[in-house]
Every structure is written in structure tokens, then in C-alpha cells.
Amino acid sequence: MSNQRTQTPYIVAALFLGGALWADHTWFDGTRFAAFSPHPFWVIVLAVSARHGLAPGLIVAAAAGVAQLAGNLPPQALTQDRYQYMFAVTQLPLLWVLAAGILGGMRSAQLRDRATTQARAAQARRQLDVITTAYNDLKGTARMLEGQIAGQVRTTHTLCEAARTISRAVANVDEKGLLAGAAEVTRELVHPEKFSIFVMTRGRLRPVLMEGWQEDERWDREFNPDSELFRRVIAQHHYLCVGDPKDRPFLADQGVLAGPLIDPASGEAFGMLKVEQLAFMELGSQSVESFRINCEWIGVALADVRRRGREGAPGPFLAREAAPATLADGADTPRDGQAIGAAMHGGVLTPPAPWRATHRGGHDGD
Question: Which of 80, 234, 275, 336 suits 361 as a labelling partner, its CA being 20 to 30 A distant?
């Protein structure tokens, strides 16, 4: 396309000059329009110069001069010297070249300015596209962050409410209230679909909370000391994750995550938090760490309530060793709740006690 545009003025000029010479030879006196004023060749010279610029204009002006003079030189008059004769002969072609230079130069400058403007406009459009894309990305990121902030605000509010519930439960030695708050915090921290809390009763793990369970669930409702899950979690204080190939045989399709509830005062595990069902996108390193912290918090708060209950503090107490029948028949088992976010001690929100070196070491050693 570019070559065709470049060749167009020369083709048009050749056709025009050829047609003009044929018309002069056929219909006129054959002097190549010497008597005409203005000369017809002005048309093509000015048109090409004004349309295509300096170079095409000069070439067409030179071609017009050749077409005018080739084989058509007038005789030299007796009164003319050589320079006067040369000027008379080349006067018209020189005027064509001069006109083509002036008009074509102006047109070439205009074409360059237009090309520069078009290039700048194209660059501006590209920059606008980049800015638009970046704006849309930033807008999407802002919306995502707004959603995350809103979710965090809701989560913080829920955790505060659950912390108040746990605080009241610890103060009143209300294990059912504590389990409800623990379940609410579990939902906010780990986002499980189904989970359960087990405590030791007569040497076995039995559930005190089963969140999201149906009557016909396949998971076991009791774990004996000879089970792999019991030994791994209760005896060895390990945290199990189905994402770790070493932990899968111990979980044995009983859940996705499992961790011990440890009394920080004695260092003994007295229960287990187990997540049976969790969305695939929620199972990551952050959720596993949140689950570990959750187990620590529940262990601290639940151990405090159990200790207060054994000391004879007033208030409902669900899971004492002295009353195992409540755990066996499940009559008082809460059905709603989610994970724990903060351990409450003496009615004040406190961080969980640090694990003993033996707890960490037992996990790292396997």
C-alpha cells in the first residue's frame, strides 16, 4: 500500500504529460503549447507539489521540462546572445522547478507535522489504554480490598462477641457457653464446614460439640486409646493435616485437620479439635496455623473452666470427669458454633500460654 501511494504521483504525471503531448501532436501545431499562457504543464506540477510534497513536485517539474524541450528547442534569434537564448529556453522549466520547490516544501512540512501529530496521538492513545487498564486493575484491587476490610471488620466484630461470650463462660464456669464461643471463633478463623470438639471421658475421646454434622455422618464419635488418631494427637501432641502425606494414615479419613487441646498447667492433652470438612481453597498454611492457635486457645480456656469446676466454682459444668454420662449420651451437646479466637482467663482476654519445649519437640521428632 505504501509503495502504491509513492508511485501514484509519477503515474499520474506520466499519463498527464503523455496525454498532453498526444493532444498537441494531434489537434494543435506541435509546438508543445508554446503559445499557451499559462502553460498546461503548470497544472500537473502544482497539483503534484501541493498534494505529495517537495520530492515528487521537483521530479514532476523536471519531467515537465524534459517533455517541453526534448526535441523541441526553438531557434536562436539573431539578437540573442547565448545566455539570453538559454534563459529564454529554460525560463518556464525553471519557474516550474521553483514553484514545485516552494509549494512542495510547504506541503512536505505539513506532512511531517501531520505525521508527528498522528504519532503523538497514537502514543497518547496507547498511554490512555495503559492508564485505563491500570485504573481498572486498581479499581478491582480497591474493591477487593474493600471487601477484605469489610470482612475483617465483620470478623473482628464476631471475634469480639465470641470473646465476650468466652469471658462470661469462664467467669461463670459455663462450659456450654465457652464451647459456643469457641465454635464461633473457629468459624471465623478456620472457616470449616464441619468440625467437632472432643474431650477425655473415662479414658476415651468423646464429642461435646459437633458442628454441621448430620445423623448419618461416617466419622467416628468415639476414639479409644489404641486408635492411631488418639495416640498421635493425645499421647504425642501432634497437629495433623491431610495435606501432609505423613499425617494421612493417622487421620484415616476422619477429617482434614486435628489437633490436641492441652492444659498449659499440666502439659497434658485432655481433648481434641477436629475439622471434618473444609473448602479446598481454605486449606493453606495460614488456615493450618490459625487452626493450631485455635487449639491452643480452646485448650487454655477449656482447661481453666474445668479447673474452676473441679474447685467447686458455681455455674453449669458440662464435661467434668465426675459426670461422664453427659458426654456419653450427648443430651447437652451444643450443635452450633465455630473456632475459638481468644482464650479468656478470669474474665480478661489473654493470649494462650506458650507451649512447652516437649510439645514442639515431640512433633518435630517424627
Answer: 275
